[in-house]
Amino acid sequence: MTDTERRPFRVVVVNAGVSDPSSTKMLADRLALRVEAAAQRGGDTVETLHLDLRELLPELSGALASGHLGPKFTKAIEALRDADGIIATAPVYKAGPSGLFSSFFQVLDNDLLIAKPVVLGATAGTARHALVVDEQMRSLFAFLRTMTTPTSVFASTEDWQDKALGKRIDRAARELVVLMASGVEAQIKDSSWEHYQHVFGSAGGSELGIDLNSDLMRLAAGGSLGPQK
């Protein structure tokens, strides 16, 4: 494929901020702009899709309780599946990423984001929460087997006036572009896909062989271990 034939990078910006205006959204937007600029310097373009998680709140309870995905939730998952890279930002509440942010990513299929390049960012009112990104958010995305950039971005209230924040944003953006340009996601999936677990409906049909009448499955469904008629 020649340079003129290269398609744009598809970047999904996941923002868990709920206020308006939102510092979390502002951080996500700045990251997105710097990713676009970094890609352009390398002769590439970016198609950016903004995903505000607060718009999914009406469908979140059903997704958590029963795995039922509403239309907006389904579109969000499809966007993440097709993305070349993800920018994921969350506000910090009570020394951790917001419940909205964590719940959304916990609902996703374990295999959805394998080897997907991701930049992580968080905002808080104080610098005391600076390690939330690397201690809590990064571990969640490690479980999802994503390719998180070496640089994460945290912004407390005082950071917005600090030039160092802009430098971290630029560095993280460049790292994301390098990962996307390398094609690391496709290379890992092409060579290693058969070694993954493929759980939550992605087991190629093998999950249909589960014995639903076993003692364990009857208990899980709220039944008893007594004789079955």
From TrEMBL:
* InterPro entries for this protein: CE1759_FMN_reduct, Flavoprotein-like_sf, FMN_Rdtase-like_dom, NAD(P)H-dep_FMN_reductase
- Listed Pfam families: FMN_red
The NADPH-dependent FMN reductase-like domain covers which part of the protein? 10-160
Which SUPFAM superfamilies does the annotation name?
Flavoproteins
Look up the signal peptide feature and give its range: none
Which keywords accompany this UniProt record? Answer: Flavoprotein, FMN, Oxidoreductase
Q: What is the top-level taxon of the source organism?
A: Bacteria
Q: What is this protein called?
A: NAD(P)H-dependent oxidoreductase
